[in-house]
Design brief:
two-stranded antiparallel sheet; alpha+beta; 6-stranded antiparallel sheet
């Protein structure tokens, strides 16, 4: 009694839908292994992994159900009278190959080992595409292999690839105890000598060689694109975690491979297709979300994206546009590679593409960008500042604040200028930075605050100078504050500066002289008629303190000119 008969006698033991679901998973593994075997050279790790996984799935299935029979029809695969898979009847596919050579069903039984699976798939792969001089046929090769746990049935007549009826080359059923001698007298026709071919006729012209290479390249690209489509289709057809992990492992290697071959349209197909699948089936397959995120993190690291670093400066505009779409679907981890590309970007369009991509990815997760700002060299960080200022206000400010304490004064100045120009924080908050422990930061803030007339900034400086108690070691800081007041101030500062320059008798001698000199510096920087009149009056004064103030200012101005 066969395993199939036993199952039919125990209808309550298994639910057919469950069996069919698991059958589809095993068949998906078989398709994946077969396809990988056809795409990669012998000994490559990817087909080896997929064959091993298929064997594991099949072994688990056989331990539970005893056997797996797949019936091969022209356009579909059937098991337990239910369709397992269907598709176009085209050369190069597993069902087509088996059906073309007359195999009507194939059955795997318990005890099959990895070597039998590998040998069986290798035989099938060798006959995927018919050559002009085939070495045997698939049925004969399977028969010669004497697989003890693979049974099959060959039709007496079958339809070949051209739709013609042919006699089966091996008309028998193969059972586990195959001991029959191989059939003889297969209807060989007498050999007829063919006319000799002139070797000169076989030489291709240069144009023909180029056309042939173009045809080969087109077929290879088309085949690989179809392969990626098949992998994505399998993710949808067989929605189980184990298959999902396996296929994503293959896709991650393929993604980097397509980048290296500059097949960016296929790279886009991989990341776009996977994002769409996960988005569409998030509720039905919640387990797929973390697996896919692991995939995107892996393909977004510097190693996986390294081919783009090599190609970026020589690819054409169309390829650049495709990569722009690829970047959108990556994990924010890709920001590091994009920043490296930004340093080498040759055109404004390329720079803008990279900037937009970084901004988009940082919008999902800021951590990679923050890490980059913390551990990168000054040149890379400088290139990132124009990108940072385009982020949302809060995120932009967060990053720019990190840059205020970089060693590079150029970076700090650009960060402060960006914060003030964009109005990322209220002027009162910016003003507090004039007391920053870092002298360079203080001076940079003063320089920015003194770039234009602003009543709010003027009021802050007036209040600061009036109400702050300074230490003697802050004398230079006080003078910078007065000079900045003059640059950002207006007529409203005149009363305070007049009082400070001409009076202030109540202040201690050190501070009285310092403040008077500061007031004179502010009036010079103010450069309005009222300030000029006040300075003229002070210069004509016979008061020795005022005379010394202007002597000090003249001496400082001479030093400043000499330093230039």
């Amino acid at each position: 009694m066969s395993a199939q008969d036993k199952m039919s006698l125990e209808p309550g033991k298994f639910f057919q839908e469950d069996v069919l679901k698991e059958t589809r998973k095993v068949y998906a593994g078989m398709l994946l292994a077969s396809k990988n075997l056809s795409l990669y050279p012998s000994g490559h790790s990817i087909p080896a992994k997929s064959i091993k996984l298929f064997h594991q799935k099949l072994e688990t299935y056989l331990q539970k159900y005893g056997y797996l029979r797949l019936e091969i029809e022209r356009n579909r695969i059937v098991s337990l009278d239910e369709e397992i898979s269907s598709g176009p009847h085209e050369e190069g596919t597993l069902p087509f190959t088996l059906f073309r050579d007359g195999i009507r069903w194939i059955e795997f039984t318990q005890g099959i080992d990895l070597e039998q699976i590998k040998s069986f798939l290798t035989i099938v792969n060798q006959h995927m595409i018919l050559s002009a001089e085939p070495e045997g046929d698939i049925v004969t090769n399977i028969w010669e292999a004497q697989f003890s746990h693979i049974q099959y049935d060959v039709a007496d007549f079958f339809v070949n690839a051209d739709g013609e009826m042919k006699d089966s080359i091996s008309s028998f059923k193969a059972e586990p105890d195959i001991t029959e001698p191989r059939e003889k007298n297969l209807g060989e026709k007498p050999y007829a000598r063919q006319p000799e071919i002139d070797p000169a006729q076989l030489i291709l012209s240069q144009q023909e060689q180029e056309q042939l290479q173009e045809m080969i390249r087109y077929e290879q690209e088309a085949d690989f694109s179809s392969y990626v489509n098949a992998l994505l289709d399998i993710l949808l057809l067989y929605r189980d975690e184990e298959s999902f992990r396996t296929i994503l492992e293959v896709l991650s290697e393929e993604f980097t491979g397509t980048l290296a071959r500059e097949e960016f349209d296929i790279s886009l197909k991989i990341v776009w297709g996977l994002r769409k699948i996960v988005e569409q089936y998030r509720k039905q397959m919640p387990w797929a979300v973390p697996i896919s995120e692991d995939f995107f993190q892996k393909v977004s690291d510097v190693d996986s994206l390294s081919p783009v670093l090599q190609a970026w400066n020589h690819i054409n505009a169309e390829q650049t546009d495709i990569l722009e779409q690829v970047f959108k679907y990556l994990d924010p981890k890709a920001i590091r590679t994009l920043a490296l590309l930004l340093a080498d970007g040759e055109s404004e369009k390329q720079k803008q593409i990279l900037s937009n991509a970084i901004i988009g990815l940082a919008g999902k997760n800021m951590r990679p960008l923050e890490d980059l700002l913390n551990d990168s060299d000054d040149k890379l960080v400088e290139n990132l500042i124009p990108v940072i200022v385009q982020l949302e206000n809060e995120k932009s400010l967060h990053c720019l604040m990190k840059l205020l304490h970089r060693d590079s004064s150029l970076i700090r100045e650009k960060a402060i200028r960006s914060i003030i120009d964009r109005g990322l924080v209220p002027m009162r908050e910016v003003f507090k930075w004039i007391d920053d422990p870092d002298e360079v930061v203080r001076r940079l803030v003063m320089r920015q605050l003194g770039k234009k007339r602003d009543s709010a900034t003027e009021e802050l400086f007036l209040s600061y100078l009036k109400n702050t108690t300074f230490q003697k070691d802050q004398a230079d800081h006080v003078m910078v504050c007065f000079k900045t007041l003059g640059r950002c101030g207006s007529l409203r500062s005149i009363p305070y500066l007049r009082e400070t320059l001409l009076h202030r008798k109540w202040m201690p001698g050190f501070w009285r002289a310092l403040y008077r000199r500061g007031a004179a510096v502010a009036l010079e920087a103010l450069a309005i008629p009222e300030s000029e009149q006040l300075l003229d009056k002070a210069r004509r004064s016979l008061h020795p303190i005022l005379r010394s103030v202007f002597r000090d200012i003249n001496r400082d101005n001479q030093k400043s000119k000499g330093g230039r």
